[in-house]
Amino acid sequence: MARTTGSHSGITGPKIRTAALELFAKHGFAAVSMRQIASEVGVQAGALYNYTPDKQSLLFDLMQSHMTELLSALPNEDAAQPFEMLEQFVRFHIAFHHERPEAVFIAYMELRNLSPENFALIEDLRGQYENRLQNILIAGQASGAWTVKDAKIATFAVIAMLTGVNTWFRSEGRLSLSEVQDQYWQMVRSAVGG
Amino acid sequence: MARTTGSHSGITGPKIRTAALELFAKHGFAAVSMRQIASEVGVQAGALYNYTPDKQSLLFDLMQSHMTELLSALPNEDAAQPFEMLEQFVRFHIAFHHERPEAVFIAYMELRNLSPENFALIEDLRGQYENRLQNILIAGQASGAWTVKDAKIATFAVIAMLTGVNTWFRSEGRLSLSEVQDQYWQMVRSAVGG
DNA sequence: GTGCTATATGAACAAGCGTTCAGAACCAAG
DNA sequence: CTTGGTTCTGAACGCTTGTTCATATAGCAC
Q: If you placed Cys at B66, which of A99, A136, B14, B103 could pair as Cys (CB 3.0 to 4.6 Å)?
């Protein structure tokens, strides 16, 4: 026997990415087999290799897509005041990460499963994102908008704090997303000394 | 053949734990084989089963030890002022986590590889730790020492921020541990509105 | 020095892994 | 209705996995 339900190249590809994303996020890259992914898609394992050269590339593509989307979705900070830029960044980060918890999880947890070259590529993208925040913090420092000593440390602190929202916040809970954004923005603003 | 170098029960046990800790932190639980651990210890894989019933227990023991040590090393907060308690917590968290990066990494990243019962046990310990901080924040709220709105959110925010130090701080870098502690303490104090 | 026990070996087990590939089934175009 | 090319199956590949166990040794107590 061969294909039982017809030709589906346009639909199988995305399904594989979705299935891999969910399974990697839930069980971890190393713990998920190609057969599990295939089974989730409703296909045999061999068929996956029409869409990806190997398992590692599947992971890398997911991470790269996520980081690229993150960078291009980030509002451009030009021509705004430091406080507005920082507030915009805080609200953006929380909302964007909240919308794709699986991709965020993978992008943070599976770095060690990338080949050295792939790791360097993802780390570069992450660095670009962090630099955007760092530039905002430096701009606010220069203009005297706030008093934070070390912009690099503050960058790490703010990003860690904001990314942490994903570990506990659920939209069905007692707080709305915008309430969470409000409270984090207040904490960030105070933390940088504004 | 059998043992080639003698009887080592008192030394093989700890060596297994150390090897497992390092390998799990570096490559992830699922990506590390019992044979790799055994090889690191200088022993055959079968010998590991004199010290652990299975691979899962090895992971759980490492995580449980870490969380237990964390809880018992945490300074007792009684009879101090809110600000002192919070500062003590911030400095303690940074220092303690800095001393054992592998255990911290595992305790955060390998939760999904625990059986449901083991997961519940670790989560409970983590909850106890978070409650200690939350109680400090509530005490400060009640005494008017600071103005943070939601103690639960602030707890998550502070812990995420502090734990993030481990992702970038290295003692060989440009900053000393106490400088980092100082700056984070200042950011935390400001963030809670003190 | 003899015997006991704890500790280790090394082979074996069934199961699962990522990946390849010949051939079958399907769809679209002529 | 045939042809051509894309998509999938199912079996196979060599290898690794966690775990077990009979067997052998090392070191301690006597």
A: B103
